[in-house]
TrEMBL record:
<dbReference type="GO" id="GO:0005840">
    <property type="term" value="C:ribosome"/>
</dbReference>
<dbReference type="InterPro" id="IPR056792">
    <property type="entry name" value="PRC_RimM"/>
</dbReference>
<dbReference type="InterPro" id="IPR036976">
    <property type="entry name" value="RimM_N_sf"/>
</dbReference>
<comment type="similarity">
    <text>Belongs to the RimM family.</text>
</comment>
<comment type="function">
    <text>An accessory protein needed during the final step in the assembly of 30S ribosomal subunit, possibly for assembly of the head region. Essential for efficient processing of 16S rRNA. May be needed both before and after RbfA during the maturation of 16S rRNA. It has affinity for free ribosomal 30S subunits but not for 70S ribosomes.</text>
</comment>
<dbReference type="Pfam" id="PF24986">
    <property type="entry name" value="PRC_RimM"/>
</dbReference>
<dbReference type="InterPro" id="IPR009000">
    <property type="entry name" value="Transl_B-barrel_sf"/>
</dbReference>
<dbReference type="GO" id="GO:0006364">
    <property type="term" value="P:rRNA processing"/>
</dbReference>
<feature type="domain" description="RimM N-terminal">
    <location>
        <begin position="11"/>
        <end position="91"/>
    </location>
</feature>
<dbReference type="GO" id="GO:0042274">
    <property type="term" value="P:ribosomal small subunit biogenesis"/>
</dbReference>
<keyword id="KW-0143">Chaperone</keyword>
<dbReference type="InterPro" id="IPR002676">
    <property type="entry name" value="RimM_N"/>
</dbReference>
<dbReference type="Pfam" id="PF01782">
    <property type="entry name" value="RimM"/>
</dbReference>
<feature type="domain" description="Ribosome maturation factor RimM PRC barrel">
    <location>
        <begin position="104"/>
        <end position="188"/>
    </location>
</feature>
<protein>
    <recommendedName>
        <fullName>Ribosome maturation factor RimM</fullName>
    </recommendedName>
</protein>
<dbReference type="GO" id="GO:0005737">
    <property type="term" value="C:cytoplasm"/>
</dbReference>
<dbReference type="InterPro" id="IPR011033">
    <property type="entry name" value="PRC_barrel-like_sf"/>
</dbReference>
Length: 192
């Protein structure tokens, strides 16, 4: 795992409340599957004034979420003080992905470029002659069940000021992701 002083922190969950009376807390996990949250270790709490380490010495699935015990916290009153705090890990402690797979945080902020399709005259109006146009930047992603969706917001130099929802379908809608260039290319119709 990386040095927390130099590594980027990635929020992997949030403590949403207490569970029982012995220092257990409910956790809303941002990982997929949820149980991956319990596999990390090296957790850090994000408070207004900065960060501090936290250790969960036990955890399990409970209903639709997770519950975990905070080491050294053995009563409900002490556990209550952690409600609402985000839990992060060092981004470089995440497991490496297969070629062509990406974590959501890697896609956020990428410029989204689109080749103007035939049948739309928007590209010609903008002087692109059907070439590439900038739609904006990936603001965040939404999990819909069927597939993830990129929420693309207008940015400096984008073709218009519209927000677009574009399905994250690699090889179909998303034709190329270049993290080094900060660029994501899509095969998408420009709306009139």
């Amino acid at each position: 795992m990386g040095d927390l002083a130099t590594s980027e922190l990635l929020v992997v969950g949030k403590i949403t409340g207490c569970y029982g009376i012995k220092g257990w807390v409910k956790i809303h996990s941002f990982t997929d599957p949820q149980e991956n949250f319990l596999n990390y270790g090296g957790w850090v709490l994000r408070r207004r004034g900065g960060t501090e380490p936290i250790e969960f010495d036990a955890g399990k699935r409970q209903g639709k979420g997770l519950v975990a015990h905070i080491r050294g916290v053995d009563d409900r009153t002490a556990a209550e003080s952690f409600r609402g705090l985000e839990v992060a890990v060092a981004a470089d402690s995440l497991p490496a992905l297969e070629e062509g797979d990406f974590y959501w945080h890697q896609l956020e902020g990428l410029e989204v470029w689109c080749t103007a399709k035939e049948g739309t005259n928007k590209g010609a109006e903008e002087g692109t002659d059907g070439g590439e146009v900038l739609l904006g930047r990936v603001d965040y992603l939404i999990e819909t069940g069927a597939n993830d969706v990129l929420v693309v917001k207008a940015s400096d130099g984008s073709i218009d000021d519209r927000e677009r929802l574009i399905p994250y379908l690699p090889g179909d809608v998303v034709t190329r992701v270049d993290l080094e260039a900060g660029r994501l290319e899509v095969d998408w119709f420009l709306e009139e």
